[in-house]
Amino acid sequence: MNVGLPLPFATIRNHHAFLAVQNLSSFILRRLAHPDPASNFEMSPDLLGTIGRRDTHDSPIGSLELDVSKAMATGWQPQVSLDEGLRLALSNQDA
Question: With 50 as the cut, is the pLDDT of residue 48 above it?
Answer without folding.
Answer: no
